[in-house]
Amino acid sequence: MFFILLPSLCKYMLKPQLYNKLNRSTAEKELEKENFDRLVLSFYRYVKIENTQNLRNFLFEEWGKLKVLGRVYLANEGINAQVSIPEPQLELFKAIINSLDLFKGIEFKFGAKKSKVSFYKLTIKVKEQIVADGLRENTFDLKNIGKKLSAKEWNSKMENGAVVVDMRNHYESEVGHFKGAILPQSVTFKQELPMVVDLLKGKENESVLLYCTGGIRCEKASAFLKHKGFKDVCQLNGGIINYAKSVEKNNLENKFKGVNFVFDDRLGERITDDVISKCHQCGDSCDKHTNCANLQCNLLFIQCDKCSKSNQKCCSPECIDVIKLPETTQKKLRAKKKNRLIFHSHKKADLSLKFKR
After folding, report:
1. Which of 1, 57, 71, 165 is most buried, by the most CB atoms less than 10 A from its CB?
2. Backbone dihedral region of 322: left (phi > 0), alpha (psi from -120 to 50 degrees) or beta?
3. Do the Cβ atoms of 311 and 347 come closer than 8 Å?
4. Active-site positions?
5. Nearest alpha carbon to residue 103 among 86, 81, 87
6. What pTM does this model have?
7. How many CB atoms lie within 10 A of CB 265?
8. How many C-beta atoms surround the C-beta of residue 1 within 10 A?
9. In b/e form, how buried is each residue of 152-164, taking b as 16+ CB within 10 angstroms?
10. Is residue 266 situated within a structural domain?
11. pLDDT in tens, the chain (357 residues)
């Protein structure tokens, strides 16, 4: 039994914003010293938050005491969190969350495996939205979302011919998805919403199933589709994360194949042994995402171990040349230009052509 007496959030409005100032190298060394396991979990809730900055400071300070790491977004519309928690501190972490009326009883979704390499520091950002959607407020109603289905209900609906839509981006679905799902080739959720409406044109009276990593995108997507006139919209409760655990626990058929892409340093959790994608450089079977070793480029792409070794973890000969430069020169290049690039295998660009055969 945990008894916690937390101070009023008002005191946190007087504090300057705190940050974790550890660099990546120092943070890695700190993690290596730890003698306990870490649990990766995610949670979200759409709820009206008035004082986001006060809450941000409170969470940063209280979670910092527990050595919580992760990435958290706060906005007036709610919270979206992916965190790494020392296993011995899990119950205390839950107690802190449940001490806040805003988040009492929130559902936690645990990663498939314990991991120390998911996050290296705690980042809590106040944003305009916890999921950027580009929608006007009158185009959806979060009180009118799609029915949430258990893994068993989801499988049954799939077997009865429901239309399945992946509400993630192309680089996520490329390495893992449900069999027969519609896979929009989007780069952002904002881009995907109108794309899905077009892809489903004429199916307004059919049963439509939506899924994403943990469920947060499907809340808005299902409300948006219902506003657009779709009659029977359902979503996978807890997303792929909960589905994977449920099918294993209840001995159900796993209709998801491959890897579940995650937005931390792991870049993926294996759900099944199926490898459904290919290395973007040599074409061999591979579902391992990586970022180009040239930090100025930082391209997210799929690279097998063989290509990683021969291409020095880079996406192109030009990037190999860059990483051979002195670090001071590389820093100057990065100061001039910072990219957030994602390779799109469905477009004409071909990384294999950048290397001599």
Report:
1. 165
2. alpha
3. no
4. 212
5. 81
6. 0.86
7. 14
8. 4
9. eebbebbeeebbb
10. no
11. 333 444 455 555 545 556 666 677 777 777 788 888 899 999 999 999 999 999 999 999 999 999 999 999 999 999 999 999 999 999 999 999 999 999 999 999 987 666 667 788 899 999 999 998 888 777 788 889 999 999 999 999 999 999 999 999 999 999 999 999 999 999 999 999 999 999 999 999 999 999 999 999 999 999 999 999 999 999 999 999 999 999 999 999 999 999 999 988 889 999 999 999 999 999 999 999 999 999 989 999 999 999 999 999 999 999 999 999 999 998 888 887 666 678 777 665 677 767 654
For residue 240, the surrounding DSSP H or E stretch is helix 239-249
Q: Which amino acid is at 110?
A: F
SS3 assignment, position 113: coil
Residue given tokens 């209840």 in the structure block: 250
Nearest CA-CA partner of 256 in 240, 245, 242: 240
Q: Please count the residues of the chain.
A: 357
Domain of 60, CATH number, reads 3.30.70.100
Phi, then psi, of 211 in degrees rounded to 5: -145, 155
Host domain of residue 101: 9-20+35-126
In a shared domain, residues 113 and 159 = no
Nearest to 36 by CA among 64, 66, 65, 63: 66
Q: Which residue has the tokens 């008035």?
A: 50
> Strands, DSSP E only, in the chain?
38-46, 69-75, 78-86, 109-110, 122-126, 147-149, 163-166, 176-178, 207-211, 232-236, 256-260, 269-270, 289-291, 300-302
Out of 229, 255, 281, pick the residue that ends a domain: 255
Rounded Cα–Cα distance for residues 129 and 14 (Å): 24
Local structure of residue 8 (DSSP, 8 states): P
What is the C-alpha to C-alpha distance for residues 279 and 298, in angstroms, rounded to an integer? 17
